[in-house]
Amino acid sequence: MATQILLVEDDPAVRHLIVQFLQRDGADVHEAETLEQARTILSDRNDINLAILDFWLGNDNAVGLMDDLRADLAGLPVLIISGGNAATDLETTQAIADISGAVAFLQKPFRKKDLLSAVADALG
Amino acid sequence: MTSANQDKASLAAAVLLERLIRDTYTARHSSEIQPLQWSILRYLARSPEDQRQLRRIAPFLNLTPSPVARAITTLAQRGLVTQRVNNTDSRIKTISLTQLGLEALSQDPIVDVATRIDALPESERQDFIRSVRTLALGTSYYPKPVD
């Protein structure tokens, strides 16, 4: 059975590229542009194997969702991707992601092989 | 507790945090490795090869390339990192930790702070970590209590 991956990324071009990388690697990707869409996917499905979350999403961030995932789906690995934002550098973003339970952090832009390697590591 | 005492306590907490970090670097005699250099070593330890380049490290640390480049040069001179010219683009250098650099990281002063955090009673540790995260996010999740 194909790996089921939730991808939350608000940039359509980046999201499309990541979906392509993952699908060509054999995964089924469930896309979300917002945290609300991500929560809908998670409530509709119980077979998600991995969540890939863009940390900064417009005026929001992934911390709340990550906290909820840790509380409700403790075994679901979360991989954070980020290019930082105007107010918060990447080092800080990575540390916040670490605190919030991320199993890996990828700095954008990243190569396909680095993404797939991180996914493989996250899935064990 | 009055508002004045709460503000004073917050200021005192800020002073203590500042002293905690500053004293950690001073206590480890890290005049040999400076805080920026420690940040670079940490970055190199956890980043894939393709991201171990000046053009990735500088924005990660929210710095301009010049001070990062100087720090990397110093680390290379001390044998803690190597710089290898990229096969496909000679303008790019891939930076890697040497064995000496890995060994140096085991003495990272920030580990002392982490160890002290680990030693807190579990509920205090969790509260402290959540509070630091809140501060870093720059949002106030908890309203100030009304007297």
What is the CATH architecture term of one domain in chain A? 3-Layer(aba) Sandwich
Largest beta-sheet characterization of chain A:
5 strands, parallel
Overall radius of gyration of chain B = 19 Å
| Helix residue percentage of chain B | 55-70%
Shape of chain A: globular
Strand order of the largest sheet of chain B: 1-2
The CATH superfamily of one domain in chain A is known as Response regulator
What class do helices, strands and sheet pairing of chain A give?
alpha/beta
Structural summary, described in words:
The complex is a heterodimer of chains A (124) and B (147). Chain A has helices at residues 12-24, 35-44, 63-72, 90-99, 112-123, and strands at 4-8, 28-32, 50-54, 56-57, 60-61, 78-82, 104-107. Chain A has 124 residues and is α/β, with parallel strands linked by helices. Chain A has a domain at 47-124: Rossmann fold (3-Layer(aba) Sandwich), CATH 3.40.50.2300. In chain A, the strands form two sheets. Chain A has a five-stranded parallel β-sheet, with helices on both faces. In chain A, strand 4 and strand 5 (60-61) form a beta hairpin. Chain A is globular. The model of chain A has no long low-confidence stretch (mean pLDDT 95). Chain B has 147 residues and is mostly helical. Chain B has a domain at 32-105: Arc Repressor Mutant, subunit A. Chain B is 61% helix and 7% strand. Chain B is built from seven helices and two strands. In chain B, strands 1-2 form a two-stranded antiparallel sheet. The longest helix of chain B is centred in the N-terminal third of the chain and has 25 residues, at 3-27. Chain B is elongated, with a radius of gyration of 19 Å. The termini of chain B are close together. Chain A: The modification 4-aspartylphosphate is found at residue 54. Chain A: This is Response regulator.
